[in-house]
């Protein structure tokens, strides 16, 4: 994991960012994991031989499992990501419970640093249509200027209030209540390929998706970065996922 310089929160000034970061910190995940898990049903202990075989020879089996929704063989692997994103992203993220484990930094036990989310120029700002049938379109230059200015002003005021309470001896767990959901947080998230595929099916838009999804852009940004890491670890599984409509088995 890349070393990040630590800053004493008491001396820090609010900073603003429009990106998210995702780092794969450890993994035990390969296409061969799918094969030996699947073949135990017919080969018993001999299925362990799949660990040393070239998975390319059995990519048809991986595709069959994906196509016919035999999902459990895709669970015998693990990936742990370190994610930095706004708090509102994590509150959506943690709706994904099956096959996921989370540990997030705590505002009860540490003083939170003033890093806040402001949408970048490419972020579509305007929602048109009614709930269940709407689209997002580009904002005007004036809307982007207003959004950035209003958010930065609000973030500064809230962090000043937070610091004022801490300086007066108010407990961190109480003082954090004034901080907005645009504050950046960090967490470890651990999943397997099946749970990640379910996440990606719901939290990314993709031209190959058989079932359309309409995620908030910020959580989609996290999903895209996780997907890129997973694709390198399990390329045959990833290809089968796309080939079969990006629906988790």
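^ structure tokens above, recovered residues below v
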């Amino acid at each position: 994991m890349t070393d990040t310089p630590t800053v004493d929160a008491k001396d820090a000034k609010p900073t603003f960012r429009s990106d998210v970061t995702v780092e794969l910190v450890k993994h035990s995940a390969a296409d061969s994991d799918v094969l030996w898990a699947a073949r135990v049903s017919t080969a018993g202990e001999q299925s362990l031989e799949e660990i040393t075989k070239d998975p390319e020879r059995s990519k048809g089996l991986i595709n069959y499992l994906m196509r016919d929704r035999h999902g459990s063989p895709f669970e015998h692997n693990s990936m742990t990501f370190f994610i930095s994103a706004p708090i509102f992203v994590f509150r959506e993220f943690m709706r994904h419970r099956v096959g996921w484990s989370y540990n997030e930094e705590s505002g009860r036990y540490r003083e939170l640093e003033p890093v806040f989310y402001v949408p970048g120029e490419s972020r579509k700002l305007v929602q048109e249509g009614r709930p269940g049938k709407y689209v997002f379109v580009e904002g005007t230059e004036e809307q982007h200027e207003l959004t950035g200015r209003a958010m930065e002003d609000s973030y500064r005021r809230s962090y000043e209030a937070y610091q004022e309470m801490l300086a007066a001896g108010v407990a961190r767990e109480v003082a954090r209540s004034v901080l907005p959901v645009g504050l950046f947080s960090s967490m470890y998230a651990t999943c397997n390929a099946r749970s990640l595929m379910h996440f990606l099916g719901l939290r990314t838009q993709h031209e190959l998706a058989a079932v359309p999804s309409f995620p908030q852009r910020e959580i989609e940004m996290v999903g895209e970065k996780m997907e890129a890491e997973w694709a390198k670890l399990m390329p045959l599984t990833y290809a089968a996922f796309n080939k079969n409509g990006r629906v988790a088995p």
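Strands lie at 15-17, 21-28, 78-86, 100-104, 115-117, 126-130, 133-137, 184-191.
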